[in-house]
Amino acid sequence: MSDISAPRSSNVVIVGAGPAGMILALLLARRGLTVKVIERNPDFHREFRGEVLQPRFWHAVTEAGLADLFTSIPQEKFDALRFFVRGTLRGLIKAADIDKTFPFFTWMTQPDMLTGLKAAADAFPGCHVEFGSRVTGLIRDGGQVCGITYETSSGDIHEHHAKVVVGSDGRFSALRKLGDFKLSHQSHQFDVMWFEMERPESYVHGADIFLGDRLNCLILPKRPHKIQCGLLISPGSFKKFREAGTESLAAMLDATHPMFREFSRKLIDFKSFTLLSAVVERVSEWAQDGLLLIGDAAHTCSPAGAVGVTIAVETAIVADNVTARCFKLGDFSKAVLDNVQRRREPEVLKVHKIQERAGLLLAQNPLPRSISTWIIGFLIGSGIAPRIMRGMLTRRADNPLLAKMPD
Ligand SMILES: Cc1cc2nc3c(=O)[nH]c(=O)nc-3n(C[C@H](O)[C@H](O)[C@H](O)COP(=O)(O)OP(=O)(O)OC[C@H]3O[C@@H](n4cnc5c(N)ncnc54)[C@H](O)[C@@H]3O)c2cc1C
């Protein structure tokens, strides 16, 4: 809610209290900078978002000195990714084969994560998060961005001035549009029909990929007693599923894995499904004078590999480092802010490429299942699959986020 006593200027204003925005707010506040965060939602309870964190997440937050904070946030851990073909387990990749330091995958809801980050940020009097307000414009002084205008939940328009404006407002970023940022890359390999159901008795805790004859599905644990299921479909094909009707979809689900039987028996309409377009996007230049995009706003990740939160958080950690340098130099120009993109883009590019290849394979069923089964067995048994996953889900120790910047 809008707080009329809140200061109308700060060192930094951040638009969007997702993982990237809240981590950056906390890190900057920890340095003694004043920070304002504007979040359009009234609280952290949002539509389902990334809830699985990969080993590389723990490398990043440990490097940033936030490991104790994240360890204290409610979470579950699991140690393997399983591949099923027509309901039968055909392969398993252990987290320990991917990362020796953090040999586990973590399940943490975004509301829990963001609440934990805000509680830590609240300890710093210079940090203020304003809910229920959405950014409406950029304030410029010549070419330099020096603040934002935003609309509060009661419809008032306010100005907020800052030396650095950060857009961490996600894949549909308003700041991307307001700043007229251009995309350098966009792809769209698949859509996801998300639904949730109670955990069946047969459910074994973990993350699963089910390859069926006509459908592929991703299953993730959802606290405290549900599972989150994502049907991977080709772009734009949701309409065809609706036209074919619930009976047809129920039959496909049953053929994908027996655990869906209870859910598909009760399927009478499509209200249980939420559609997500899994796009991969990169903005061509992430910074302007006084303005910086981070997280999904700069480099939207698809859900493939469940790595978007980690990549967003890594960029936020680098953005903290670069923003601190801006204040040290008294220089808030694009030239200095560009260091975020310079240091992060090669890694983002690598992850996006793997996501795009995985997306192509998972969204369609191009091969007969006997061949898919053989390929999965071979990729896992030969160590190729864990190696590919390592490229996406871990970060090499000799590639630190906080490498010293040249003076
Ligand atoms: C369905 C789904 C499943 C996913 N699964 C995973 C997963 O398991 N693991 C994983 O790592 N990643 C996953 N991802 C990706 C992950 O959610 C994102 O990469 C990550 O949340 C990006 O963080 P962010 O802080 O950059 O943006 P976001 O989390 O999108 O946060 C942006 C914030 O900005 C706010 N905002 C937007 N517009 C405005 C405005 N105009 N004014 C003020 N505030 C605004 C939004 O309300 C939001 O709070 C998934 C994504 C989706 C959509």
What's the rounded overall pLDDT mean?
90
How many β-strand stretches? 19
Percent in helix: 25-40%
Q: What small ligands are held by the chains?
A: flavin-adenine dinucleotide
> What is the terminal separation in angstroms?
41 Å
Instruction: Work out the helix count.
Output: 13
CATH fold assignment of the largest domain = FAD/NAD(P)-binding domain
Overview of the molecule:
- The chain is α+β, with helices and mostly antiparallel strands and about 400 residues long.
- About 35% of the residues lie in helices and about 30% in strands.
- A hairpin with a 2-residue loop joins strand 5 (about 80-85) and strand 6.
- About 45% of the residues are buried.
- The strands form three sheets. Strands 1, 2, 8, 9, 10, 11, 17 and 18 form an eight-stranded mixed sheet that branches. An eight-stranded mixed sheet has the order 6-5-13-14-15-12-16-19.
- The chain is globular, with a radius of gyration of 22 Å.
- It has two domains: about 10-50 and about 110-180 and about 285-360, FAD/NAD(P)-binding domain, CATH 3.50.50; about 185-280, D-Amino Acid Oxidase, subunit A, domain 2 (D-Amino Acid Oxidase, Chain A, domain 2, 2-Layer Sandwich), CATH 3.30.9.
- It has helices at about 20-30, 55-65, 65-70, 95-100, 110-120, 175-180, 240-245, 245-255, 260-265, 310-330, 335-365, 370-380, 385-395, and strands at about 10-15, 35-40, 50-55, 75-80, 80-85, 90-95, 105, 125-130, 135-140, 145-150, 155-165, 185-200, 205-210, 215-220, 225-235, 275-285, 285-290, 290-295, 300.
- The model has no long low-confidence stretch (mean pLDDT about 90).
- It contains 13 helices and 19 strands.
- Flavin-adenine dinucleotide binds near residues 19, 50, 52 and 312.
